[in-house]
Sequence to fold (164 residues):
Amino acid sequence: MAFTLTSPAFVTGDVLPQAQVYNGMGQTGQNLSPALAWTGAPEGTQSFVVTVFDPDAPTGSGWWHWVVVNIPPTVTTLPEGAGSGRGGLPEQALQIRTDFGVPGYGGAAPPPGRVHRYVFTVYALDVPRLEVSADSSPALVGFMVHHHQLATASLTALYGGPAK
Fold:
């Protein structure tokens, strides 16, 4: 069985719904993390990490919108708003500081001019937890993830474009 990630809010290639768009930086979204579900994790999975990354941000290194580590292997769904303070994150899960400067979900907020890709990824890991804090960088989490990943599954939504 293939490791897959799905959301009831969008499929790969869709425009990101306003519910998942940031409320600030020129945007008027609801800033809610989308509901996510994954299936087909490989044998030996001991935890999951969920990330949202914009590789098109004009920073030279992209933009991290959400990083959640230490999701138990028995959890295969996150409800809408779980990363936005509405509950639904497992007790053991830890949200890491994003490029907005704080832990938690930060929705799409691209500057005018081009469409950006928002890559939602779940990683199946061979360790029960990553030894990081809420103030750890996404780069540190990525380093650890890439040393422990068994499988990945992604969805990519689009958002942005010319100024109105």
